[in-house]
Amino acid sequence: RVYGRAKPNERLIQNLTSPIAGRVETLFVNSAGFSVSKGQLLAYIFSPEFMTAQQELLVTKKMKSSLPELYEAARDKLRFWKITDDQIDAIEQSENIWPGFPVMSPTDGVITSLRVNLGDYISQGTVLFELADFSILRVEFDVYESDLPFLKVGDSISFIFQALPQRKFGSKITIIDPMLDPVTRVFRILTEIKNTEGIVKPQMFATGIIRSKVGNVNDKPLVIPRSAVLWTGKRSIVYVKLAETDRPTFLLREVILGASLGDRYIVESGLSEGEEIVVEGAFSIDAAAQLAGKKSMMSME
To answer: 140 with 181: CB under 8 angstroms?
Structure first.
C-alpha cells in the first residue's frame, strides 16, 4: 500500500513567450486559473516594429508582380513572428494595419502563472504566461527503502483519490526515482493517468496498491505477521509453541527477517512451515519469562 498525490505532467507545461518586443496593450486573461483553448486570443502587444512590417507588406503587395522576392520577404518577416498565412492574407485584404500584435494560445490548457501586467514593456523572448495541460497527469507515490526490492518499472498499480472514492484508476509504474529523499527516507515512484474529463485535480491525495511477485515465480516465501515479532536491538525474535507438551509452552527463537510486506515480514531463516507461533501477546509472554528469571528477549545472551 502506497500513498501519493497527483501533479501536473512536467512534459506538458510550457512557457508562452513573446516573439516580439513592445508594450502589453491588452490582457484577455488577467490571472492564473483560466482554462484556455488552442488558438484563443490571450493578449495584444503594441509594437512599432510590427506596425512597420505590416506597412512593408501593403507596399510590396502593389509591387508583387515586378518584385515578387521583396513581397515574399515581407511575408516571411511576419511569419517569423508566428503570424499565420491566413492572418497575413487578412491584413492584405483589409489593407488595415493591426494596432497590436496578437498572442494566441498554442494548445488547450490552464494558465498556471501570469508573468506580466498590463502596460509592461517587454523584450523578445519575455515569458508572458505559464500554460499547463492537465489532460494527462502524473501521480507520485512514496515508497520506503524496504519496499524497493519488490518494485520495478512496468508493475501494475491501482489507486483511488480521496476526493473520488468511487472512481478506481489503474496504471503502470513508469519511473522509479533513483535518489532517496534524505529527509523523509523514501523513494518516489511515478505513473501517469489520462484526465480528459478533468475530474482529477493536481495535488489530490491518492492511495494505491501495488501487486508484485516476490523472488522467482516458483518461490513460496514464508511470511509471518508483524505483530509476532519482538526486537532486541539488532535481533528479531518470536515465540514458538512446543507441540510435545501437555500445556501451552513457548520457546524463544531468533529469526532472520527479509523484506516487509505491509503488516507482514518474509522470514529468511529460523522458522519452518507448519510451526505455530504467538501472533498476539508475545510481549506479555516475554514479560512473564523475565519475572520468572527465565530466558527472555532481555537475557538472550
So the answer is: no
Phi then psi for residue 145, to 5 deg, are -55, -40
pLDDT band at 66 (very low <50, low <70, confident <90, very high): confident
Three-state SS at 229: coil
User: How far is it, in rounded angstroms, from Cα 142 to Cα 148?
Assistant: 10
Instruction: Determine the residue type at 199.
Output: I
The DSSP result for 288-300, as a single string, is: HHHHTT---TT--
Is the pLDDT confidence value at 171 over 70? yes
CB 239 within 8 A of CB 286: yes
Spatial distance between the Cα atoms of 24 and 2, rounded to a whole number of angstroms = 47
Ranges 95-99, 138-142, 196-200, most confident:
138-142
C-alpha closest to that of 98 among 108, 86, 88: 88
267, 220 in Cβ contact below 8 A?
no
**How far out from the chain centre does Cα 238 lie?**
41
* pLDDT for the residue 215: 59
Q: What is the mean pLDDT of residues 127-138?
A: 93
d(CA 143, CA 21): 48
Scan for cell 523484506, then name that residue: 259
Q: What angle do CA 209, 213, 214 make, to 5 degrees?
A: 115
For residue 72, what is the enclosing H or E element?
A: helix 68-80
What's the mean pLDDT in 180-190? 90
pTM, entire model:
0.65
SS3 231: strand
Distance in angstroms (rounded) separating the CA atoms of residues 189 and 142? 6
